[in-house]
Write a structure and sequence with these properties.
The chain is an alpha/beta fold. Helix content is 52%, strand content 13%. The two termini are 24 Å apart.
Length: 210
């Protein structure tokens, strides 16, 4: 019997919540935990701190809640999903003011927040005995050229974070590109069960070292 279970903490937005599949159906968090248990042959306890509509700034604020701080301190595996809502909010602003700067501003701002998020986790998890997994963004609006440009720009900035210690970024963008119909739920914005499973698979393929 495994008396030394690992602890997995999932932080983020609606993707971590699991919006897009029926209530109580697994999202990527549950799938990833299951895949990780099989691969590592260890029990894994998991905790979710996520909110629909959460921006990178909201996630940064979350990391200062005592309950989340405590969870980070104990976590062996951490996943973060954030950034989609930053871009969606910027796109809404762009539709009103037609100013493309609102999108590049949102990308810079979210990049800045992400750096602070990683810094905060490093500061809290003093053991260095954890892995941090991020996902880049898929494009739910493949027919809108500006959406694809913005998401590619966001993704190239988030991919750079994968160079940091203990951090790797799963390439969700490539998995969803051209497969939107098969992987997105009816609303067309959030993944369906298969989409979430593919996300979990991409995360587990990043491995578990150190």
């Amino acid at each position: 019997m495994d008396f030394n279970p690992l602890r997995y903490l999932a932080i983020g937005d609606s993707l971590t919540v699991g919006i897009g599949v029926p209530f109580l159906d697994p999202g990527f968090v549950e799938y990833y935990r299951g895949l990780s248990q099989q691969i590592l042959k260890k029990s894994i306890f998991y905790q979710k701190h996520a909110m629909s509509g959460a921006t990178t700034e909201d996630v940064l604020i979350m990391l200062h809640f005592p309950i989340v701080t405590e969870a980070v301190n104990c976590a062996d595996i951490i996943t973060i999903t954030a950034g989609g809502d930053d871009l969606i909010n910027a796109a809404k602003e762009f539709l009103i003011n037609k100013n493309e700067d609102s999108i590049s501003h949102a990308i810079n701002q979210s990049q800045n927040n992400y750096s602070k998020i990683l810094e905060r986790i490093r500061h809290l998890d003093k053991q260095d005995q954890y892995i941090l997994r991020l996902t880049n963004l898929y494009n739910p609006f493949p027919d809108i050229p500006i959406a694809d440009e913005a998401i590619k720009a966001f993704n190239s900035s988030i991919n750079r974070l994968g160079l940091e210690m203990n951090v790797k970024v799963a390439d969700i963008y490539s998995i969803f590109k051209g497969n939107e119909k098969a992987l997105l739920s009816k609303g067309g914005v959030h993944p369906n069960s298969e989409g979430y499973y593919q996300m979990a698979l991409a995360l587990s393929r990043l491995g578990y070292s150190p």
